[in-house]
Amino acid sequence: MHSTDIAHAPTPEPATGDRRRWFALAIVMTAAFMDLVDVTIVNIAVPSIQRDEGATFSQIQWITAGYALAFAAGLVTGGRLGDIHGRKRAFLVGIGGFTVASALCGLAVNPEMLVASRILQGAMAALMVPQVLSIVHATFPAHERGKVFGLFGAIVGLGAVSGPLLGALLTEGNLFGLEWRPIFLINLPVGVAALFLGSRFITESKAPRALKLDLPGVALVTLALLMLLYPLTRGRELGWPVWGYVSMAGALVVFAALVAYERAKGARDGSPLIELSLFRVKSFAAGIAVQTVFGVGLGVFFLVWTLYMQIGLGWSALRAGLTGVPFSVAVSVAAGMSVQQLVPRFGRKVLQAGALVMAAGVLIYLAEADHYGLGITSWQMALPLVVMGAGMGLIVAPLTDAVLSEVPREHAGSASGLINTVQQMGHALGLGLVSVVFFGVIDERLAPAEVGPAFVDGFTHALGWVAAVLGAIFLLMFALPKRPAQHVEGAAGAEEAPVTGEKEPELVP
User: Fold this and answer.
1) Fewest CB atoms less than 10 Å from the CB: which of 214, 228, 374, 414?
2) H-only helix segments in 54-173
3) What does the alpha-carbon distance between residue 506 and residue 509 come to, in Å, rounded to a whole number?
């Protein structure tokens, strides 16, 4: 099965007559949907988890940030493991591990076990998710991939819309008296079915010349992020001790060591975790900055938003989930328009308009939350949420293409993996910053009557920070290409290479 003679043979074009490829597509799309839903479903259940388990707010942050951190740290390595050992094998191990981790989350007996299980879940997602596009690439011929990637985009939109609603229904339904636990346990039958069907219908594929693993690089990235995030999330509870500031400063030293190590590894064997030469491409470097900062803004907003609605305003999970529907719909509609109609005509200006529109939505929300206080209604939130969603949709869909448009084709996979990684890292950092921008303005000991007004104040304060982040994104976007849809010679289209770093996968019988 792992014959070296096969591994270096010319890459055959996937057969169009094999109906199994559509079963394989359904399986990997289901796995991608599971991951997308799992990211959004947890936010809506956070107040219920906090109430039922007696979790501290820093533990609540780690339930979400731990997943994002493990996912970010493992993405590139997960892709490389698929290149080396086979995408089907890595996918099956990933989805099996994700299912086990989901069970552990659902059966967690205390907040510490839930945090640990979420970290494991994120690590397994990092092994599972990078294989999805690579398996599609190996399974479908070039002329069918456009249709398949369009379907993938629709699944992403569906995941964004259905995650909060599904989380709200499962939490509010309190199935079998399990409170919030079904949001994790629902993954079990889906994961078991995907594992069984995937072993039958997915065709194995490998990279002809797989890059080597860079485990020291992963360790340095993870250490630097932990040194930054842990003091941020725990600092407020512990009274901002000196060691926290030392740790955060030390994170910069570790990042510097990472750059030096990656440069040396690239010169030694050509397989660093981070391809540093990519940062010489101005549009890519700016795009990575945009992705990171955008991740920070989203990380702050979504956690603070759900805490504001459910703890501050006292709304049910279902009402909070339904309140978010206009936002999700606006994101989906604007994303489709931006890619198909607006970006081909107006280029970079569409992304910049998206940043300004989203910032305008945030400021409208801030004004309304401040004006109406605890009396605000769901329909009053609809306008700012639609404006925010429209702005976000204008950004998210074309951004990856804009970042990759001037990247040489041979580095397409590395660049794609890095984009996903920094977005998740930014998200984890944003979740860590919630301690500063939200809880930092709320007194630790509040009487019941003081909770609502304090959370409203914290929410409006956090929204000010999110608006500032979007302003920074608008300025960073000036370094993106004016016409991101027009690729330079040798540049990488999103459909041309899997996210793992190889141009063509090798089918293995």
Assistant:
1) 374
2) 57-85, 87-106, 111-139, 142-173
3) 10
Closest by alpha carbon to 70, among 118, 112, 22, 31? 118
Predicted local distance difference test score (pLDDT) of residue 17: 53
Both structure tokens of 478: 């000036």
Q: Give residue for tokens 């996912």.
A: 71
Largest CA distance in the chain: 72
Q: Tokens standing for 145?
A: 């991939």
Collapsed DSSP state (helix, strand, coil) of residue 506 = strand
Q: Is the pLDDT of residue 99 over 70?
A: yes
The CA–CA distances, whole Å, from 198 to 17, 33, 153, 393 equal 19, 15, 21, 32
Tokens of 119: 């970290």
**Nearest 10 degrees: Cα torsion 264, 269, 273, 278:** 80
CA 416 – CA 321 distance, rounded (Å): 31
Q: Which helix (H) or strand (E) holds 330?
A: helix 325-337
Per-residue pLDDT of 193-221, as tens digits, reads: 999 998 888 888 877 776 778 889 889 98
User: Token match 């397994």: residue?
Assistant: 124
